[in-house]
UniProtKB/TrEMBL annotation:
<dbReference type="Pfam" id="PF00266">
    <property type="entry name" value="Aminotran_5"/>
</dbReference>
<dbReference type="InterPro" id="IPR015421">
    <property type="entry name" value="PyrdxlP-dep_Trfase_major"/>
</dbReference>
<keyword id="KW-0663">Pyridoxal phosphate</keyword>
<protein>
    <submittedName>
        <fullName>Probable L-cysteine desulfhydrase, chloroplastic</fullName>
    </submittedName>
</protein>
<dbReference type="InterPro" id="IPR015424">
    <property type="entry name" value="PyrdxlP-dep_Trfase"/>
</dbReference>
<feature type="compositionally biased region" description="Basic residues">
    <location>
        <begin position="18"/>
        <end position="28"/>
    </location>
</feature>
<feature type="region of interest" description="Disordered">
    <location>
        <begin position="1"/>
        <end position="39"/>
    </location>
</feature>
<feature type="domain" description="Aminotransferase class V">
    <location>
        <begin position="101"/>
        <end position="294"/>
    </location>
</feature>
<dbReference type="InterPro" id="IPR000192">
    <property type="entry name" value="Aminotrans_V_dom"/>
</dbReference>
<feature type="compositionally biased region" description="Basic and acidic residues">
    <location>
        <begin position="7"/>
        <end position="17"/>
    </location>
</feature>
Length: 466
């Protein structure tokens, strides 16, 4: 990944080509990261220690094993401090902040994201509140194309069955209502290979193109939420291109900081990822990448304000008076991740290795299995729960999750998978565990012991009242 272009940054920024200019320096070996990560000017003599990481996350509730980073993410203390500084700057002199600080600060954050995701140009990167907001931007454009007659009623949108609930609702609100025909790609679970996903996706596209219909948009998750699996998006985007799909939107709520995110390699028209889930920003902030094309001007923020018509990135940078600090702390987040060996890449690799190790430990302990092979997961993995717990409905998963939180101090989402036909497989409940830098083996042992206790007590979900 290229280093940050200096012209995109103010002189007080810490992101210079340290190694390129000072490779002879005797501290070079101790620098965090490699040629693909952003390096600070000053050499770091050491990386974060265990106790420093603990201090950064000391605000976490110590009574709870937080093995659910995937839902809400996390934000270290140093970034929260930086956020406070931005908030005070605004409150101290709002007019000066609005006219002289805000646009410049957001541009700097966008420039950093542009480098991390390997986009062609900073204009392709907008900052919005959430991946759900990003989905609204894209789907709103699709709905206008139907209502203005550029798309024919009955033209298709393809999405994965695993698509996030909020995005499914958005597709219903924007696309179905405008006359689009929605096709869900059914995906198996547990899943054993990328081939299974590719095969089902090809079938759905065939269905979409039947009767002379056009497939106008494919909405593809990068890392699905529930059940959780990394989708082979590069391959699916390539198939979309071959099959004449107009546009491809990758919903990567869990993308940046969780798995490999490279816009030039992926080749989608749109790619959205939260920055508060796996990239340590405070809630809530996401980026929406829109590949440069003549159609870029057709995209608008769903909240219309003074900047309407000035391009999505500028529209998004001011949608009225509100707290913009989550979008402004990206340089501080970069400082934080670069205090880890290998920077963001190093964090991702260690999180992946650790979540696989913890998942395998739990599956072995409970005599169950993982929801997918280790190479199909990123920093989250699914583990089958013992069948004797009696998880028979969606409601049971919520009851059991609450029970684990309230009685055992374990926070973990649970997925219900209805048995197919007359399968012998009796596992209908899966837990999704996350691993982030603040996690410890103790967190997963606490979960293991809680489930073991429930099993030995003869517990079943039917004993819990709603």
């Amino acid at each position: 990944m290229a280093s940050l272009a200096h012209e995109n940054l103010d002189h007080d920024d810490d992101h210079e080509h340290y190694r390129n200019h000072h490779h002879h320096h005797h501290h070079a070996n101790n620098l965090n990261g490699d040629s693909r990560t952003h390096l600070p000017k000053k050499p770091r003599l050491s990386f974060f220690t265990e106790s420093e990481i603990a201090t950064e996350f000391a605000h976490h509730d110590s009574d709870v094993a937080r093995i659910n980073n995937g839902s809400f993410g996390c934000c270290p203390a140093s970034v929260l401090e930086a956020q406070k500084v931005w908030q005070h700057k605004f409150l101290a002199q709002p007019d000066d902040f609005y006219f002289n600080e805000l646009k410049k600060g957001i541009h700097r954050s966008r420039s950093i994201i542009k480098e991390i995701i390997n986009a062609e140009h900073v204009d392709e990167v907008s900052l919005v509140d959430n991946a759900t907001t990003a989905a609204a931007v894209v789907l709103q454009q699709t709905s206008w194309a139907f209502s203005e007659g550029r798309f024919d009623k009955g033209d298709a949108i393809v999405m994965l069955h695993y698509a996030y609930g909020a995005v499914k609702k958005s597709i219903e609100a924007y696309v179905t209502r405008a006359g689009g025909y929605v096709i869900e790609v059914p995906l198996p679970f547990p899943v054993s290979s990328n081939d299974e996903i590719v095969t089902e996706f090809r079938k759905a596209l065939e269905k979409g193109k039947a009767n002379g219909r056009r497939v106008r948009l494919a909405v593809i998750d990068h890392v699905t939420s529930m059940p959780c699996v990394v989708i082979p998006i590069k391959e699916l985007v390539k198939i979309c291109r071959e099959e004449g799909v107009d546009q491809v939107f990758v919903d990567a709520a869990h993308g940046i900081g969780c798995t490999a995110v490279d816009m030039k390699e992926i080749g989608a028209d749109f790619y959205a990822s939260n920055l508060h889930k796996w990239f340590f920003c405070p809630p809530s902030v996401a980026f929406l990448y829109c590949r440069k094309s003549p159609k870029l001007s057709e995209l608008h923020h769903p909240v219309v304000s003074h900047e309407y018509g000035n391009g999505l990135a500028i529209e998004s940078a001011w949608i009225g008076t509100r707290d913009y600090s989550p979008q402004l702390v990206v340089p501080s987040v970069l400082d934080f991740v670069n205090k880890f060996e290998g920077g963001l890449e190093g964090i991702k690799k260690r999180n992946h290795d650790a979540v696989v190790e913890m998942g395998e430990m739990l599956a072995k302990e409970w005599g169950t299995h993982l929801g997918c092979p280790p190479d199909m997961c990123a920093s989250m993995i699914m583990i089958g729960l013992p069948a004797c717990l009696g998880i028979l409905t969606e409601k049971d998963t919520l009851k059991l999750r609450s029970h684990l939180r309230e009685k055992f101090g374990v926070e973990v989402p649970i997925y219900f998978r209805a048995p197919r036909n007359s399968e012998d497989v009796t596992i209908t409940g899966y837990a999704r565990i996350s691993y982030q830098v603040y996690n410890k083996v103790d967190d997963y042992n606490k979960f293991k012991d809680a489930i073991n206790k429930l099993v030995s007590d003869g517990f079943t979900c039917s004993l819990l009242t709603t």
